[in-house]
């Protein structure tokens, strides 16, 4: 990892961890104990956080920004996910063979909490109750991944793109203006489609009231209508 600066996390970061899936529901004192020695790392865009095959000396929790997670198979890189605030990176290797199984790269300016791996595991060994909690959190994460795979197989490209747009807002209804948080090519990679397929999907979303604009933004006439479109079983 290069082009990074680090600082000791403040209480606000610890409070934030209590709302992330891995640490949710744990008391602040327990979170502080488990993450003792952690640092907040600031990354510039395009900075590689870690690469597949490297030993897991620290695992990471995204505090702010967007981070691309990818794998390489037979010389071809494939984007597995683009993660945001609250996501944990490196935990698979941490709890298995001790090496990263993916590569992570900052897409935007990003802040992450870097937690020393061995110290964390040593403390975790003494807390069976926390172990059960984290197993539950990882099970929920697995369910989310299964849902993502199901969407790739069962939803059209337009529906997948629509679901991505829905993830960018908390609005329940009405007109919403959204902006792609990073390059559309990366969005296409994340959704398992080619850039030209994404462009066609944007065109199909017009029937759901989505207007694409040249400044990397879209206007959704009615977010409720888009939600219904994405839930339909058959798009023809």
Describe the structure in your own words:
The protein is of the alpha+beta class and 236 residues long. The chain has two domains: 149 residues, Sandwich (Jelly Rolls), CATH 2.60.120; 77 residues, Orthogonal Bundle (Arc Repressor Mutant, subunit A), CATH 1.10.10. Helix content is 38%, strand content 25%. The chain has nine helices and twelve strands. The protein has a five-stranded antiparallel β-sheet. A four-stranded antiparallel β-sheet has the order 3-8-5-6. A three-stranded antiparallel β-sheet has the order 10-12-11, with no helix packed on it. β11 and β12 form a beta hairpin. α6 crosses α9. 28% of the residues are buried. The mean pLDDT is 85.
Question: What is the number of E strands?
Answer: 12
Ends distance: 46 Å
Please tell me what the overall shape is: globular
CATH superfamily of the largest domain: Jelly Rolls
Strand content: 15-25%
| Radius of gyration based on Cα positions | 19 Å
Major sheet: arrangement of strands = 1-2-9-4-7
Mean pLDDT: 85
Order of helices and strands: EHHEEEEEEHEEHHHEHHEEH
User: CATH topology of the largest domain, which one?
Assistant: Jelly Rolls
């Amino acid at each position: 990892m290069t082009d990074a600066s680090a600082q000791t996390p403040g209480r606000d970061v610890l409070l934030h961890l209590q709302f992330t899936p891995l640490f949710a529901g744990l008391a602040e004192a327990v979170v502080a104990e488990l993450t003792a020695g952690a640092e907040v790392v600031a990354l510039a865009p395009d900075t590689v956080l870690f690469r597949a095959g490297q030993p897991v000396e620290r695992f990471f929790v995204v505090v702010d920004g967007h981070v691309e997670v990818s794998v390489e198979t037979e010389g071809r890189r494939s984007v597995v996910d683009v993660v945001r605030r609250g996501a944990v990176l490196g935990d698979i290797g941490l709890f298995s063979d001790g090496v990263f199984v993916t590569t992570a790269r900052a897409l935007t300016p990003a802040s992450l909490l870097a937690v020393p791996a061995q110290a964390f595991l040593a403390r975790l060994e003494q807390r069976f109750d926390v172990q059960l909690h984290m197993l539950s959190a990882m099970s929920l994460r697995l369910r989310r991944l299964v849902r993502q795979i199901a969407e790739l197989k069962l939803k059209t490209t337009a529906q997948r793109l629509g679901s991505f747009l829905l993830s960018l807002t908390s609005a329940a209804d009405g007109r919403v203006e959204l902006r792609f948080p990073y390059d559309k090519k990366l969005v296409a990679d994340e959704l398992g489609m080619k850039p030209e397929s994404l462009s066609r999907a944007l065109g199909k979303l017009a029937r759901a009231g989505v207007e694409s604009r040249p400044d990397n933004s879209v206007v959704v006439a009615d977010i409720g209508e888009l939600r219904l479109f994405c839930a339909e079983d058959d798009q023809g």
